[in-house]
Amino acid sequence: MLSWRLKLLFFCLFSLKSYSVSCQYSFSLNYFGGRMLSHSKYTKEIESNIYGIQLESLWKLRNETDDFNNKKNQLKLYPQIGISSTWMNMGLTTTGYQLGAGLVMGGVLTDKNTISFSWHLSHGLSYLSEKYDTFQRPINFAIGSTINYFAQLKGAIEYNVTPNLSLNAGLYLTHASNGNWKKPNVGLNAVHYGVGLIYYPNEIHNSDRASMYLHKRKFFTSPFSVGLKMAYREHTLEYPVSFSVFIADFQYRIQKKANHIWDIGFDLFSDPNYKFDKYGNSMGIDESQQLELGIKGGHQFVYGRVGLRTDFGIYVLRPVLSDKPFFYNAIGLDYRISQDWVLRSRLKAHLNVADYMEFGISRLF
Question: Cβ contacts of residue 59 below 8 Å, gap of 6+?
C-alpha cells in the first residue's frame, strides 16, 4: 500500500515538468523556525521549538485575463504550481526529525514591480525518524508510523532585489499524520516563520512572457461524476486490527474559470469499524448499520491535469452509536488521466482529527 502511494505521488510530481517550458520558473531556499503546537493532551509533552529548511521549485501560470497589448503594471493574481521538500528538526530526541515532499499549489498577487504576495498549499508524504513505542518513546503518542501524510499552508511577501533574485518572508502551518493507517495518530502541527531567497534562472521575470501557459477549459466541462474509493485504517491501539472502508460518491461540477471548480454532491461510507468497540468486542450490528451518508460541497484549484481538492460535508445518516462530529472536512489531489477518468486521493478528518486516507477513481459524464 505504501509503495503504491509513493508511486502515485511521484507520478503526479514528475508530470509537472512540462510546465517549465512555457512558464516562469523559480527556485527558492528558505530557513524556518517556530514551535510544535499542543492541540491535544497527548501531545503536550512533545511541544517544543522546531527549525529546518525548505526547497521549492515553482511555475507561475498565465492569468486568464492577461492582455499582452496592455503594458501597464496592473495588480494581478497568477496561479502557481510546483514541488517542495522540507527537513524539520522537531526539537526533542523522542520526536526526531521530519522529511517531507509534496505538490505545491497556490497563487501570487503581483503588479510586476517590487513587492508580491503569495500563498501556497502543499500536499504529499513525510518520513518521521521517530514514532510511538510503548517502552522507548511512550510520550510520542502523536504518531504511530514513520510514513505519514504531509500538508503545509504558507503565506509570504516577496521583495524583488534584481530581475533574477528576490527576498521572501512568510508564515507556515505544517501538519503530519497517517490518517489512522497505524495507531496512535493524534498528529503533529507546527507553526513557524520562514525567510529565504528566490532565484529566477530565466530572463522572463517581471515580463508578460512569464505566463504563456493557458488552460484548455473544455477539458474540464463534464458536469457529473461518480467515484469509488477505498481507505485502510487500524481500529484502535488496544485492538490493532485493520479494516477496509469503501466510499462511493456523486458530484455535480460547476466551472466558470479554468483554474477553479466548485462541486456539490454526496458521499456514502461503509465503515466496518462500527462493528467493534475499542477493545475489539462485537457491537452486534450488521452491514446496513455501518453506513454513513454525507451531503458535501467542494472546491478545486485546477492546474492542467492536477487539481487540489477541499471538501466539507454534513452527515445526514450515520450509526446511532457514532461519537463523531456531525460534519467532516477533507483535502486531496485529483489527477486527470484521460478525458473521462480521474485518479483521486483524499484525507478525511473531523477538524484536526484524521479519520483515514482515501484512494480511488472517478468517472466523468
Answer: 16, 19, 20, 23, 24, 25, 26, 80, 81, 82, 213
Residues 265/224, Cβ–Cβ less than 8 Å: no
pLDDT at 131: 82
pLDDT of 19: 41
Residue keyed to cell 518521521: 128
Strand partners, 170: 156, 194
Residue 332 CB coordination number (10 Å): 21
- DSSP-derived secondary structure letter, 46: G
Query: What are the two backbone dihedrals, phi and then psi, of residue 230, each rounded to the nearest 5 degrees?
Result: -135, 145
Question: Residues 224, 251: contact at Cβ < 8 Å?
Answer: yes
105 residue type, one letter: M
The per-residue pLDDT for 216 is 41
Give the domains, in start order, of the chain with CATH numbers: 2-210 (2.40.160.20), 217-364 (2.40.160)
Reference 364, options 279, 261, 281, 288; nearest CA is 261
Task: Report residue 167 as a C-alpha cell.
Answer: 527576498
Q: Is the dihedral of CA 18, 165, 168, 90 positive or negative?
A: positive
Separation CA 148–CA 343 (nearest Å): 20
Of 90, 84, 125, nearest to 105 by C-alpha is 84
| Angle value at C-alpha 309, between 9 and 255, nearest 5 degrees | 125
- Its pTM stands at 0.70
Instruction: Single out the residue of 286, 240, 292, 285 nearest to residue 271, CA to CA.
Output: 292
* 239 beta partners: none
Q: Kindly give, in sequence order, each residue whose CB lies less than 8 Å from that of residue 215, ignoring residues fewer than 6 positions away.
A: 61, 64, 258, 259, 302, 303, 304
**CB contact burial 7-38 (16+ within 10 A = b; e otherwise):** ebbeebbeebeebeeebbbbebebebebebbe
pLDDT tens for residues 276-312?
A: 888 889 888 887 889 999 999 999 888 778 888 889 9
d(Cα 77, Cα 343) in Å, to the nearest integer? Answer: 28
